[in-house]
Amino acid sequence: MTAAPTAQPPSPSATTLEFLGREHGHFIGGRWVTPASSATIDVYDPATGERISRVAAGGAADVDAAVRAARAAFEGPWSRFTAAQRSAVLWKVADLVQQDFQRLCELEVLDSGLPMPLAQYVCGMVVPEFFRYYAGWPTKIEGATIPAAPQGKLPGEAISFTLREPIGVVGAITPWNSPLPMVMLKVAPALATGCTLVLKPAELAPLSAMRLAEICQEAGVPDGVINLVNGTGESAGAALAAHPGVDKIAFTGSTEVGRMIVRAAAADLKKVTLELGGKSPVVVFDDADLEQAIPGAARACFFLQGQNCMAGTRLFVHEKVHDRMVEGIAAIARAMKLGPGMDPTSEFGPLISAQQRERVAGFVAAGRREGAEVVCGGAAPSRPGYFFEPTVLARTRDDMTPVREEIFGPVLCVQSFGDDDLAQVARAANSTIYGLSGSVWTRDLGRAMQMVRRIDAGQVSVNMHAAIDPAMPFGGNKQSGWGREFGKEGLEPYLKTKGVSMTW
Fold first, then answer.
1. What is the Cα–Cα distance from 473 to 54, expressed in whole angstroms?
2. Can you say how many angstroms the Cα of residue 77 is from the centroid of all Cα atoms in its chain?
3. CA distance 323 to 375
4. Is 275 a catalytic residue?
5. What is the pLDDT of residues 342-393, one digit of tens each?
6. 98 C-beta neighbours (distance < 10 Å), count
7. Minimal CA–CA distance to 436: which of 455, 469, 458?
């Protein structure tokens, strides 16, 4: 592991500094409003540990005001927008995101610790592409004519059809690991279907979500369609999940919190979609192209510093290529330049907080105690910020703590297998409560397809990992979640079906 250059990274732009210095309240009814209480939350740059901003700490009263504003907009001006008008708004949001590229990139880097090249990819390509993808959908949301015979009516005496309608007010609760895309994945399909939203961004990284709320307003979204309440999960998040005026909760975060949201939503049986944790397998057979598999497996685990639900954190590798895979991945890990995202030469950023760094260190320590071999990394470097070295643990077993539990950090657990019993390899890959993503690396496409069918995950890639596209559905099986995001399937949770029968 090498450190990034010690020279001072570039300073944020004037527009970013102005945004950081604002008094950040809540965005309700199309404007920034004074919070119900004076409580605040400090926002820190994880690369330095220094406070960079402060936001209001909202609670039940703020959430209630936001929900009432969202309901009024849903029943009022937003309901009178045509499908084509909603499309135009979404396209305009994409344009404005690209116009505000520099500020959004800097907010993502300073708020969550992303390396700058990744933030540039997210803000310049991923987020605008998703908004434009969903801009194409409002005019294509259709019902169907049903060949039914209600009450014994003959053909020509009645007609039955379905309407697809927006579900209503959506409560969206998003995580800190990639803030802007996570918010976008709630906002874009909700606006496409005609819903209104109350956003509760992660208190550790709320800044780009606040800027996106402003951008949506600038794009022509009516007052109250997008509302944002900052606050902790225990206060604002819990109030939003339980609020009787919310028709659906869309949550991305940990499986533990997902269970809490389900319990809160059960009181009035509101609809819930959950994108939760993962412990994704990467299966490498002895015929794999190691020139692809070695860097591919490294990226699968260390992308976003391992703070990624799709992360390929369990590597199952054939014993014939085990040593080459481990040595190659360890060499990549050691060579990564660690440093703040504002430094364009940095390749590996910090974890989100001191607490998260301690959590990751605890899992590595548990692996040591339980017999794992630390091939590289395994420590927090002595420097400002919440950094932790990319780590490879070899000789791991299914019963080890770092193998069983989601670490949400840059720790790869390696296991080997010695034969081609695909059922046995798949059982090992599936030996977890999670089922979000996975990948298979082999030149044998027949073997690849067999493994694709056997791995119990919402997404499986061959000779790549976590391949995403706006049109491809994404979501988890087992305790990795309910429902899907991305693609046409990402619209479904925001719609309800009404059956209509008519006679004359």
1. 36
2. 30
3. 11
4. yes
5. 999 999 999 999 999 999 999 999 999 999 999 999 999 999 999 999 999 9
6. 15
7. 458
Token pair of 28, please? 């309700």
14, amino acid identity: A
Cα separation, 199 vs 228, whole angstroms = 5
Global confidence as pTM = 0.95
Among residues 105, 195, 216, 309, the one annotated as catalytic is 309
Widest CA span in the chain: 81
Look up 75 and say whether it is catalytic: no
Low-confidence ranges of the chain (pLDDT < 70): 1-7
- Options 106, 275, 406, 485, the catalytic residue: 275
Question: What are φ and ψ of residue 89, in 5° steps?
Answer: -65, -45
Which residue type, as a one-letter code, is found at position 24?
H
* Closest to 283 (Cα-Cα) out of 329, 315, 326, 309: 315
How is domain 11-276+482-500 classified at the architecture level of CATH?
3-Layer(aba) Sandwich (3.40)
At residue 2, the pLDDT reads 54
Break the chain into its structural domains and give their ranges.
11-276+482-500, 281-469
CB environment 324-346: b (16+ within 10 A), e (fewer): ebbebbbebbeebebbbbbbeeb
Q: Closest Cα partner for 367 from 336, 331, 398? A: 398
Please check whether residue 229 is in contact with residue 57, taking contact to mean a CB–CB distance below 8 angstroms: no
Q: Is 3 helix (H, G, I), strand (E, B) or coil?
A: strand
CATH of domain 281-469: 3.40.309.10
